[in-house]
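not sure who needs this but someone in the group chat was asking about Nuclear receptor 2C2 associated protein from Propithecus coquereli so here u go. i didnt clean anything up, its just raw.
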Amino acid sequence: MTHSLVCPETVSRVSSVLNRNTRQFGKKHLFDQDEETCWNSDQGPSQWVILEFPQRIRVSQLQIQFQGGFSSRLGRLEGSQGSEALSKIVDFYPEDNNSLQISCPGLPLGSPRPEWEP
């Protein structure tokens, strides 16, 4: 069984917010568990979300959900330890629909999962 690694102490940052309207489209909607809300970015070639966890984490899967018609064509999971530069773990290619999509980092079954510490 999986559970979210996001906790109240997790710091999140986003590349942009649609029309700078943080009340309606801000990052707080990324993890509010409300299917009626979502983070909306402004237009642009590259949009991103950064999460800084308060403790070392082990990633086993990434769950992401887009509004249909507003999906990214390419996603990239990156990670780092402490103040190191981010490095690519895996690229993923989301479907353009509003279903929950699950991606596992590109590791063979049974391999150690990536770990990071702040």
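also Residues 26 and 39 are 5 Å apart (CA to CA). if thats useful
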